[in-house]
Sequence to fold (249 residues):
Amino acid sequence: MEHIPRHLAIIMDGNGRWAQQRHLPRLVGHQKGVEAVRQVVEECCSLGICHLTLYAFSSENWGRPADEVAALMGLLATYLKSELKTLLSNKVRLRVIGESEKLPKNIRKTLDEAVERTSQNDSMTLTLALSYGSRAELLNVCKSLAARVGCGELRSEEIDEELFSAALDTGGVPDPDFLIRTSGEMRISNFLLWQLAYTELYFTDVFWPDFSREELHKALLEFGRRQRRFGLTAEQLLKQDRSGDGGNH
Ligand code: FPP
Fold:
């Protein structure tokens, strides 16, 4: 495929409804969801995608029934333990964004170990958004920059988009080129609000547990057909392309 996004972000949605349709407990939907995570991570590695970010647990998800929260945490721990070998052999670096201090201690330990053990990998960066909410992330940046201005370390005029981006949890990772949300919902749900400014959005009715390699390819074909103009005109982009200055629009 000609147009592979450098950074793909996914809102994995519909585990519960997938299970409900089959008269199964929601947990089975989440278990199937983990299978989909495995497949998609491997496929993204094979396709040469540099950054994959998965919205695995939002700050709002803490409000779910305690047994569902516990089950999701358990699935996350199992995934990390069972996949570490594959992540290492595929040279995948693991990162976490969100208020991970709110996660149970044992999960944090497993995550920290996986992050540490994969820190030298350079083939693909897999970012898990856990206990993540974009508004909280933005507020934290504002507070930390305000504190730096307050103590004289930084002048307010020095705050620009680059500095602001670098202070986000995602600092150092390029903004997503393409966002996929499954299950027919057409919302951003407090995910990467700053980072998605120019991201191409793709919504599919497919529930996350059914999001297969084929579905990923379908989405990427659609990405290849999009023209990303970043506020410019089509003619300007054509000129840029001719002068060899254009990227993937
Ligand atoms: C959305 O389905 C999914 C989640 C809230 C959790 C996603 C988690 C996983 C796929 C498993 C663990 C993650 C990793 C990275 C191993 P939903 O429950 O909101 O579905 P519904 O909207 O149909 O109820």
